[in-house]
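Re-run requested by the PI after the first attempt was lost when the workstation crashed. Everything re-entered from the original request form. Ligand of interest: flavin-adenine dinucleotide.
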Amino acid sequence: MKGAMMDSHDRIAVIGTGPAGLIASLCLAHTGHSVRLVGPAVDHADPRTTALMQPSLAVLEKIGMRHAIENAGAPLRVMRIVDGTTRLIRSPAVAFHASDIQEPAFGFNIPNAELNRLLDEAISEQPTIQRIVAKVESYSPAETGVRVRLDNGERLVCNLVIGADGRQSRARIAAGISHMPAPLPQSAFVLCFEHEFPHDNVSTEIHTESGPFTQVPLPDPRRSSLVWVVPPHRAERLLQTDDEQLGHIIEERMQSMLGKVSVAGPRAAFPLSTALPPRFGDRRIVLVGEAAHVFPPIGAQGLNLAVRDIADLTALVPQPPADPGASDIIEAYNRTRRSDIMMRSAAVRSLNRSLLSDMLPAQMARAVGLDALRRVGPLRDFFMREGMSPGSGFKAIRREVRDALREQVDRYRPRPHKPQDRRYRHY
Ligand SMILES: Cc1cc2nc3c(=O)[nH]c(=O)nc-3n(C[C@H](O)[C@H](O)[C@H](O)COP(=O)(O)OP(=O)(O)OC[C@H]3O[C@@H](n4cnc5c(N)ncnc54)[C@H](O)[C@@H]3O)c2cc1C
């Protein structure tokens, strides 16, 4: 019975055609797996941009996408945090330079429409990815496989379902995983704008009482994207404001640091929420991307975390004939992803809370933290490395401590007697 099912069904189905589902399908295909990719037509008009950090670019390099993505994006060489709150306790500005940690750039900022288009093209060129343009209506997980019913009438049976179906994930519900959703009193207002002075590949995050206002460079030196976290009613007003007035508002908020601003192109507002399930896989279903973790867009963490979900999952999925949905694989995925997802979610949530909080201790903690980052070089280096990839800050500290110890040991190590030493020694 088990053998008959294995012959007729798919080993792996990826559900969802957002960036997480597309990247997951490509990573699995590049490691020799055949994949069914199910989801609606890919969104080629998403007005957002995504900052992909170096470790994510390294994963994309393995699927042959790094060059194209870097070409369509802008390098992020400096990231600056400015305290734009009007509170009693404010922090000084702090700037992080990629060159301080021997990187040419922290990452690249790419328009989502371009990113999705490039990934979509790569999918269509990949013979081992079978694309089904449909939505999943229901899942029935069982011991030997998951039955999946699609809204076009098709039915699949799969050993492993990868749920990349976003924050309202049905795959998560079918896996029996709750995710404790919490709406936030914030929306992300996004658009792209032109400015008088070149951005010099500097991104500036201005902290305000409603959340961060983040300018991120685009490939044109006089064009940037904006993610402005505001209360939902303010986002509604900003959506209605005419271009000229909106340009003034943005220029004023940036204290004219890029000169005159003119607004171009579409705008959108995304309601924000958080969600964090206690585990990321069960019943032959694993979750990646926003199906597994949702938090506000602070410090460009969301899709970068998703790429790490995918890299870890790809390393765990066994080659045929082994069962990719076996319980030990699902458990290994849960174990591997737990600390990274928990730590990133906690860090982003607490920074967001400290901005929203009127409490003096929260404001003090943020101000002291940012001031320490500004003044203490090694601490700043540690945060830059950890911000890009978990564990790399610790590795660098271990390396620095090891090098410092080696230097000390070398200094006191007895020198070997060289013949010429004796010749020139004075008594
Ligand atoms: C304003 C803003 C700015 C951001 N900036 C950054 C950034 O700079 N860097 C960064 O790393 N992250 C950033 N993020 C986070 C990032 O955008 C998300 O992490 C990412 O989009 C999540 O991708 P996803 O594929 O998991 O989900 P989604 O993009 O939501 O895709 C889910 C997919 O599943 C499909 N789907 C849903 N239900 C079904 C179903 N039943 N059957 C089949 N398919 C289904 C949907 O149609 C969709 O295609 C930002 C987020 C916001 C809101």
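Saved to the shared folder this time. The two ends are 92 Å apart (CA to CA).
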